[in-house]
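Summary for the steering committee. One of the milestones for this cycle was to obtain a three-dimensional model of the protein with zinc ion bound, which we needed before selecting residues for the alanine scan. The sequence and ligand used are listed below.
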Amino acid sequence: MLIGKHIAPLLVVPKSGEQNDQFAIYKSTCCGAEIVLVKGALFPLCHKHKLPAGWKIVTLIEPSDQRQKDKAA
Ligand SMILES: [Zn+2]
């Protein structure tokens, strides 16, 4: 019998090589090194270990320069 993977979405961490879909600060699961990653960028290797790591979100960064630009006068 197969063991079903029962992972809640919030516990799934992106890994090195995957594409980031939100501008945020991330922390590597191996040693806690923090990075800032823009949306669309690929998760890097851990800076300290030079190895693939999981990246846990620390803080979501809200883009503040996207203020209602299409408000035509
Ligand atoms: Zn590390």
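Key point for the committee: Residues 28, 30-31, 33, 46, 48-49, 53 surround zinc ion (CB under 6 Å).
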